[in-house]
């Protein structure tokens, strides 16, 4: 049997340049019409080289691992307009074959669906769910960037439901319930924790005028943190799979949105408190300002882009800390060049500040440490549209993390890849 790696090499040799985009999106406006449904199939073949697969530091004592990978990705998105509302769903499966690092082919399956059902003239009910199962990126379950990829398989499931009342085109009030469950597979040394979170959000529109809309939002959430199955080596995790920490959040803030043509502005400041308890409560709590500032411009010309600034609080698994504050800046620029060529530039900057000083009297390198990280990620992608639904892409990206007073967390990685994709976008 020919492996995915061999197929990737054959495809790369035949096409010269390979690239692509994600071939599956849950919501599609174009595709194959089948009755009331619009179907959007897609397939992608990619080849990528990573200079530091496990994001290791040169000072960490373990060798840096570079490897090549070939990946097949297939999926289907669908959208249906039914008599009682709209239904959207998407499924995707990918197989990644590393040349030397992993003996087996790594698989990840994704699924998502959403239901939007109006009721009468004013009320609307929305239900959505998503599932990731297999070996995927750590950013899926840790948006703050503390977790490092180790090839660990996991399951991440999310469910939410919302009821809202519309008034003259804007939401007068809404109520949203959310539930998220994250688990590593058994016997995996993941360096992060399992968790289960439940949350409630209430919102009330304060008005809408020529300048935009304003809403008041209040939210509360509770999460249980569990020791990963493959890690039980300190006071916080005496037993694999045991609950070691509880997290309670409360937030109140406002959301201001303004749309001018295809330009969108958003300002969402809030005050949030995060409190921890349990046997694994080794640090302090948080109370302070969080929020988001965002701008997007999709005016339909050759240049479009967006910028997003946020301040968020994430739970931590680092020594002596319950949480870290993450200040993030994200930039995206898309530029249509001559003919079928286009360029996409993306940049992300994270500045993470940990809440507590590490107390380790027997370890002078860690004792008194207050960790601060800076993570920068840049990516450039060239897109060639060969046909209406056939794309070729070439990309290169660079990641660098620098940790103040904790250099074993520093790393640098360069990723370059090519792919070809066919399907509806």
Structure overview:
Helices cover 3% and strands 62% of the residues. With 425 residues, it is an all-beta fold. It has an 18-stranded antiparallel beta barrel. A hairpin with a 2-residue loop joins strand 11 (243-260) and strand 12 (263-277). The protein starts with a helix and ends with a strand. The model is unreliable at 1-28 (pLDDT under 50).
Give the end-to-end Cα distance, rounded to a whole number of Å: 32 Å
By secondary-structure content and strand pairing, the structural class works out as mainly beta
Overall 3D shape:
globular
Rg computed from alpha carbons, rounded to a whole number of angstroms = 23 Å
Helix content: under 10%
Give the count of helical stretches. 1
Low-confidence stretches: 1-28
Total DSSP E strands:
19
Average of pLDDT: 86
Largest β-sheet summary: 18 strands, antiparallel, barrel
Spell the H/E element sequence.
HEEEEEEEEEEEEEEEEEEE
Summarize this entry quickly:
The chain is mostly beta strands and 425 residues long.
Question: Layout of SSEs?
Answer:
Blueprint: H1 4-15, E1 32-34, E2 37-50, E3 67-82, E4 85-98, E5 106-119, E6 123-134, E7 154-167, E8 170-184, E9 194-209, E10 212-226, E11 243-260, E12 263-277, E13 286-297, E14 303-315, E15 323-336, E16 341-354, E17 372-387, E18 390-404, E19 411-423
Keywords:
mainly beta; disordered N terminus; 425 residues; 18-stranded antiparallel beta barrel
């Amino acid at each position: 049997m020919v492996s995915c790696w061999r197929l990737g090499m054959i495809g790369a040799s035949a096409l010269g340049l390979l690239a692509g985009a994600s071939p599956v999106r849950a919501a599609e406006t174009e595709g194959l019409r089948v009755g009331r449904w619009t179907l959007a199939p897609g397939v992608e073949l990619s080849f990528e080289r990573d200079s530091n697969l496990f994001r290791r530091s040169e000072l960490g004592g373990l060798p840096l691992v570079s490897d090549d990978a070939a990946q097949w990705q297939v999926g289907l998105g669908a959208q249906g307009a039914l008599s009682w509302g709209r239904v959207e769903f998407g499924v995707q499966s990918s197989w990644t074959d590393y040349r030397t690092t992993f003996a087996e082919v790594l698989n990840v399956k994704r699924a998502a669906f959403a239901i939007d059902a109006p009721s009468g003239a004013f009320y609307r009910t929305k239900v959505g769910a998503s599932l990731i199962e297999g070996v995927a990126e750590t950013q899926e379950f840790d948006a703050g960037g503390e977790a490092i990829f180790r090839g660990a398989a996991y399951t991440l499931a999310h469910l939410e439901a919302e009821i809202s009342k519309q008034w003259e085109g804007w939401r007068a009030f809404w109520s949203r319930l959310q539930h998220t469950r994250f688990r590593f597979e058994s016997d995996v040394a993941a360096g992060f924790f399992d968790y289960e979170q439940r949350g409630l959000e209430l919102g009330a529109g304060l008005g809408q005028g020529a300048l935009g809309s304003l809403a008041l939002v209040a939210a509360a959430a509770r999460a249980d943190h569990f020791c990963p199955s493959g890690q039980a080596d300190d006071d916080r995790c005496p037993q694999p799979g045991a609950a070691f920490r509880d997290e309670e959040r409360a937030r109140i803030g406002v959301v201001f949105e303004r749309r001018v043509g295809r330009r969108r502005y958003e300002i969402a400041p809030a005050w949030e408190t995060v409190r921890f308890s349990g046997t694994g409560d080794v640090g302090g709590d948080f109370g302070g300002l969080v929020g988001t500032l965002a701008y997007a411009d999709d005016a339909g010309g050759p240049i479009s882009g967006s910028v997003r600034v946020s301040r968020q609080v994430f739970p931590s698994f680092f020594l002596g800390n319950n949480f870290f504050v993450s200040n993030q800046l994200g930039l995206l620029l898309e530029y249509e060049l001559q003919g079928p060529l286009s360029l996409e530039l993306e940049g992300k900057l994270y500045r993470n500040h940990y809440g507590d000083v590490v107390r380790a009297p027997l370890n002078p390198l860690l004792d008194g440490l207050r960790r601060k990280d800076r993570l920068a990620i840049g990516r450039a992608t060239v897109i060639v549209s060969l046909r209406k639904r056939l794309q070729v892409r070439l990309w290169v990206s660079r990641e660098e993390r620098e940790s103040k007073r904790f250099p074993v967390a520093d790393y640098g990685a360069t990723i370059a890849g090519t792919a070809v994709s066919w399907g509806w976008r």
